[in-house]
Amino acid sequence: MLSSFDWLRRSDTGAELLATMQYLESNPLFFSEEKEIGPPLSGVNWPCQRCWIYSCLKSSKRHYCKTCQGIMSRARNLGAISRSSIVIWGFVNDIPKQLRTGDGFRDSRISGSYVHDHNHFLMMMHKKQLLPWLREIFIYHGSEMLGLVQIFSTVGAKPRGGMGDLLCRAIHHETRFPMDQFRIRFFADPYQLFFPHLPDNQGLLTFEASEFLRLLEMAGVFRSLFRPEEQKMLYKVVMLKKKQEKEFYWGRLMGYLNQEAKDMLNAWKVKQWPPHQVGLLFKLIDYVEFTP
Q1: I need a surface site. Which of 20, 38, 126, 193 has the fewest CB within 10 A?
Q2: Closest Cα partner for 130 from 175, 63, 91, 84?
């Protein structure tokens, strides 16, 4: 019989992963009911076309077992939510009590959660709830939490690998660092999980938790001070490779921006940032709210 975690790892899309987590929270017995093992695959008989283990429901048009039919039916209504969500896989010294008991963290900000054991947890939430969630973690557990939290976005059904494959890769990477501090590993592109060592990443994957929280807060300030067209202009200027060309367009940009925006750029010394650091800031903009 498949365990709860086996069902999670069978998810192809973010919607399926979220549907499975929601079933585990609301009706965990749904996965432990007695099920008949399906027949061997042949020309006239076959097992469930999703899990390839249990017998198909006679009423299922797509030849799913009872559990897979329930997951897929719920997933059909979760596509929009999952596309704007992130997945958080945590390997920590001790899971916060609020998460284990369902109080505090498991609120309206969190779409689904699963506690695997005393050291591992899985969550999904809207990407713009990441900053307030991390702030809450720091307020209540910042001095005592150790370990690694990996954050990546959801995917649809693609040939490069589904959510179950990404989750397995996150588990594979979780012991790369000693449990001596609280670290966050952020994957702007979820498929970086398969190749985290590529030089294109420039090492900007793993951060001290306080550093990553600071970067998110900087992205929030940046998004609030710069209009979308100004953000595009700044990105193009900073990414220019020729020094003289960059100096020329930087001067023109400074004449276009308001004083508050110019003071921020000078205080942060954005002009001297390497391209990969600029790229990270612009990726984090999608993870913060706009504050007028």
Answers
A1: 126
A2: 84
